[in-house]
Amino acid sequence: MSELFQLKCPSCCRPYGNAPITFCDDCFSPLEVAYDLKTVRGLLTRDKIESRPANIWRYSEMLPVAPEHRSGVPVGFTPLVHAPELGSEWRAPDLYLKNDSVCFPTLSFKDRVVAVALSQARAFGFKVVGCASTGNLANAVAAQAARMGLEAWILVPANLEPAKLLATAVYGANLVRVDGTYDEVNRLCVEIAEAHSWGFVNINLRAYYAEGSKTVAYEIAEQLGWRLPDNIVVPMAGGAQICRIAKGFRELVQLGLVEDHPVRLFGAQPSGCAPIANAQRRGSLDIVPERPNTICHSLAIGDPADGHRALQVIRDSGGAAESASDEEIVAGIRLLAEREGVFGETAAGVTVASAGKLFAQGRIPADQTTVLCITGNGLKTSDAIGHLYPSTAAVAPRLGAFEQLLNVPAGVA
Ligand SMILES: *Cc1c(COP(=O)(O)O)cnc(C)c1O
Ligand SMILES: [Zn+2]
Predict the structure, then answer these.
(1) Which of 32, 101, 107, 110 to probe ligand 1 with, by most ligand atoms within 8 A of CB?
(2) Which domain does 233 fall in, by range?
(3) Inside any domain, residue 352
(4) Do the Cβ atoms of 101 and 342 come closer than 8 Å?
């Protein structure tokens, strides 16, 4: 290959070069990006990576974008924080949060995938880009398209949270609310992409898009001092992120950047839309599509594009999947905020609640190193918990009034 990367079918290994295509013609598997690992192994060292700016482009040789097409938007390198207070809840002292709720520029891990997909959209000469989105992707595409001077069309299910609609419109993107589920929006976008030859980040650019996800794995390993964790809990919608985290860890070993070490992958979904978790529990590798009914809109994909592959990587790693009800999601959001001072969105509630179950069942051993992926910011889904915190009566600006307040039982003020 002339470049260090190209599309390849993961099932039949047929190579495709670089083009905006999604599936293998022969076996219909979703295509993946393959790298010339032998060459990259000689180019990319720990020292070189550490000398570069703290964003995803420090791993450039392992991202599918030629240098001249990189957007340069400094996405990623979010904090990996030790979480002893949440860990004590589960007697797990070596618990960490990978906190993408503070990812630049739009406060979710979708900034990673969009940085790669839009860079490649530009390389392919697309002037108009778009996406089908459950919310966070809409925000990320709108923001980075604005920065890159690309026209953006963004289609979302009509029932999305107001904050996610606002945080798309503000960038000047064309926002279309569709009266349907995400899966219906996605099918419409497949037709639009073909009819207009537009670059849809999660459709005809999906293989490139997905590669952005694996930078989470690279960063976690680097931030742990160039070692792999024992367990990782990942929220799943379409299933791309969990698959690419597995790919990222594997590549680090192949590149000689970390020692080989098994990582168990645990997927988390809302009970109201859990096609991957339910298949995993049945012991099946086949997805039965579901109609979403959950407060967690960001994970409400009933027919996940990478569901089959996600089930494979979970099984191969010796991991499992769990799910959380709406009530458990809310409890998870509050537990994370009250213990660790991190306000995650509903997907974070799913991750924390599912992790709690996995620890309680002993499926995640408490004495091991475990990372929870916190993928989005709570301010975007405040309507999910707002009713729990009604605004309080104002007090007069006098010590007496305050002292009176102190005498009222806690929580009532
Ligand atoms: C999209 C999204 C996910 C899941 O990503 P997939 O790659 O589609 O599985 C997880 N968390 C948040 C907050 C998201 O927006
Ligand atoms: Zn194939």
Answers:
(1) 110
(2) 80-106+210-384
(3) yes
(4) yes
Domain membership of residue 35 (yes or no) is no
Q: What residues flank ligand 1, with Cβ below 6 Å?
A: 108, 110, 136, 213, 235-241, 298-299, 345, 347, 375-376
**How many angstroms separate the CA atoms of 329 and 338, rounded?**
14
Would you say residue 229 lies in a domain? yes
Atom of ligand 1 nearest to the CA of 345: 13
State which ligand 1 atom lies nearest to the alpha carbon of 238.
8
Backbone angles phi, psi at 186, to 5 degrees: -65, -45
| pLDDT tens per residue across span 339-391 | 999 999 999 999 999 999 999 999 999 999 999 999 999 999 999 999 999 98
Question: What value does the mean pLDDT of the chain take?
Answer: 95
- What is the number of the ligand closest to the CA of 380? 1
The CATH number for 312's domain is 3.40.50.1100
Nearest CA to ligand 1 atom 8: 238
The closest-lying atom of ligand 1 relative to the alpha carbon of residue 234 is: 10
Q: Is 407 exposed, middle or buried (0-12, 13-18, 19+ CB in 10 A)?
A: exposed
pLDDT tens-digit series, residues 168-215: 999 999 999 999 999 999 999 999 999 999 999 999 999 999 999 999
**89 CA distance to ligand 1 centroid (A)?**
26
Residue 370 is assigned to a structural domain of this protein:
yes
Residues in contact with 81: Cβ distance below 8 Å, sequence separation at least 6, in sequence order: 96, 97, 99, 340, 342
Residue 310 Cα to ligand 2 middle (Å): 17
Count of domains observed in the chain: 1
Instruction: Give the gyration radius of the chain's Cα atoms.
Output: 21
pLDDT band at 3 (very low <50, low <70, confident <90, very high): confident
